[in-house]
Design a protein that fits this description.
By secondary structure, the protein is mostly helical. Helix content is 67%, strand content 6%. The longest helix is centred in the middle third of the chain and has 32 residues.
Length: 375
């Protein structure tokens, strides 16, 4: 290795080790993000608190409640005695849904005209949509069970079957665990954030302390200074990636079906973009605070428009076009396919090409601007 480049890299690692608090934070923050997002940021809606106003209070109404109780979507939390009490529980947020069973439920059930009211709190659309779908499915299944029981009592052993049966199969994530979807996003976010923020702040810190002028007057060439300053933070980014990958596999049971070498190779392309953004931010900032704000201006669109939290297909068309300019979008597509599907490089060649192109363009533009600033 070039001795000048080796000296810069050694200097940067010494600088990192001299600040153990920052180093510990760099290693701990990914774990905190993984735990919080793996457990809290989930679309799995379960145990929705249900308030019941059972006016019939007989065997038929209890059988209906048992059907809702058997599904893990609802938790029968409150037994109320009036509509006003049910409304108060929903308005206060203690109950998210309410089930109203009329007094003539059994009579209507014998006539085949029974109706119950299912009231939902629509202030949280995610919970409301899940509760709506679950209530309909449970109600249909319970109605079919009643019809089959009536036919059996009449001596008819023919079971009721719908004219079309849809048999579903879930590939790659059969249990539909949200953590398996979130962990690749955490890896991408950490890689991009760590490399860009640390790169921007460390170079600006040299400028604030006046030490960058000392580096400029040495025989070190501009490209050697750039590579020497950036490489240690690329190593830290990869350490964070392996840390989250191992924790996701051991703690959350996330499968790693793809080739590990390919995962690291694709991650290197995202690291290139992150380092380029950080380097560019350092050329337009004079203080570490300015550098942080500059990088955060790119982080927020990257997080929200990359498909990390929300599907890109559900966004307005304009935002879908904007998302094509975000390298993290392509990385998440590749990483999720590698981890969960175990596919090869041929499955996402266009995404790899786009990620590589962005990395080269961003790093090239940032390096040129940084070199001019040194000159």
């Amino acid at each position: 290795m070039n001795p000048r480049l080796k000296a810069i890299i050694r200097k940067e690692f010494i600088q990192i080790l001299r600040d153990p608090r920052t180093l510990i934070l760099i290693l701990i923050i990914p774990i905190m993000q993984l735990v919080l997002l793996g457990y809290a940021a989930t679309n799995d809606v379960r145990n929705i608190p249900l308030a019941v106003w059972d006016q019939a209070r007989n065997a038929d109404s209890r059988a209906l409640l048992d059907a809702y109780r058997a599904a893990d979507y609802f938790r029968l939390s409150y037994d109320v005695g009036s509509e006003a009490e049910l409304r108060r529980l929903i308005e206060s947020g203690k109950a998210r849904v309410g089930l109203i069973i009329p007094a003539d439920y059994s009579v209507r059930l014998q006539e085949g005209k029974a109706q119950v009211a299912f009231v939902l709190d629509g202030s949280d659309p995610t919970v409301a949509s899940t509760a709506l779908s679950a209530s309909r499915l449970i109600g249909q299944a319970y109605a079919t069970k009643i019809m089959e029981g009536r036919l059996a009592r009449l001596g008819n052993t023919i079971s009721i079957q719908p004219p079309v049966e849809v048999r579903t199969q879930v590939w790659y994530n059969p249990d539909m665990v949200s953590a398996y979807y979130m962990i690749p996003g955490v890896i991408g976010m950490i890689l991009y954030a760590i490399t860009s923020i640390l790169t921007a702040t460390t170079i600006v810190r040299e400028r604030e302390r006046g030490t960058i002028e000392q580096l400029i007057v040495t025989p070190i060439r501009p490209w050697e200074l750039v590579v020497g300053k950036l490489l240690p933070y690329a190593v830290l980014g990869f350490l964070n990636t392996l840390e989250v990958l191992a924790l996701g596999n051991l703690w959350f049971g996330m499968p790693v079906r793809g080739d590990l070498g390919l995962i690291l190779g694709v991650s290197a392309l995202l690291v290139l973009s992150g380092l380029g953004v950080g380097l560019f931010g350092s050329t337009i900032a004079n203080t570490q605070q300015e550098a942080m704000l500059t990088v955060w201006m790119t982080l927020l669109p990257a997080i929200f428009l990359s498909g990390f939290f929300f599907p890109i297909e559900s966004m307005p068309q304009v935002l879908q076009w904007v998302s094509r300019l975000i390298p993290l979008r392509y990385y998440l597509v590749i990483l999720r396919a590698l981890l969960l599907k175990g596919v090869g490089l041929e499955a996402f060649q266009m995404e790899v090409f786009a990620l590589a192109a962005f990395g080269v363009l961003i790093m090239g533009a940032a390096a040129l601007r940084f070199r001019k600033r040194l000159d």
